[in-house]
Amino acid sequence: MNFINDIIGEELSIFEKKFAEAVKSKTLLLDRIMKFIIKRKGKQLRPMFVFLSAKLHGEINESTYRAAALVELLHTATLVHDDVVDESLERRGFFSINALWKNKIAVLVGDYLLSKGLLLSTTHNDFEHLHILSEAVRQMSEGELLQIEKSRKLNLKEDIYFEIIRNKTASLLSSACAVGAYSTCKDETVTSKMKLFGEKVGIAFQIKDDLFDYGKEDIGKPTGNDIKEKKLTLPLIYTLNNVDTATKKAVIYIIKNENKNADKVKFVIDKVTEAGGIKYAAEKMNAYRDEALEILYSFPESPVRKALEDLVRYTTDRKY
Length: 320
Hints:
320 residues; mainly alpha; Farnesyl Diphosphate Synthase; 1% strand; globular
């Protein structure tokens, strides 16, 4: 990650100041919540993808900073709303907005962030930015609803799983790469190519998250957490589709009725490991990563391309 900072460290530093300015509010409560959000920001992977995708195809400009801010505004809004939907009291090791200020305020904060993104784009006539990111918001909503619809019966097929994560997770990273590239080159062919690149990285990123549930590293959430929340991840889906009927019934029963029992959750994790679910998911993750890199290698070699490659590899090699 140090090499990446050498390439876009200055831009990220400028972006942080611009983003803090973009979310300011004259309402004291809202301003206090915005400062809370900024202090507890994550790794900023999406802004990194915006700036590197932009720099790969031209000179970073004010349009690029607005693109990165729009991506981060929409991403933050969806996280705030997700915590309300999931009734989650924690986010990145801290209390969530809804835990501190209750659901009503959290929903309004998410709406505020969305409105700031819309205003940022329309005020500066960044209509292509808005078009690209609006498509991502639609996909994210559809992906979330499809997951709710299909997960109830715990009988999810692999193709539906990939449709869900392509929409729910990969669409925003895909849009980050597309809008970054468009901000510097205004080339629709290049923008589409970078969109596909980002989608494949995003899918690999989500599968890595799936795998964390079966690992032992300290990743900020307990092992087996997805099982406790009845989430159907790729290692589990592969297992359910490749074990005998008795084992499948036992695993489904535990997920539905005994998902808070640590010993039972361990039984599921062991069955997933024995069935080859973890190995299969890791192979799929690496395949999507390699497809993303193949797209990236179609562009001329440069320090920026190398930084993007490092960032792609980080998404699948990270420890948390």
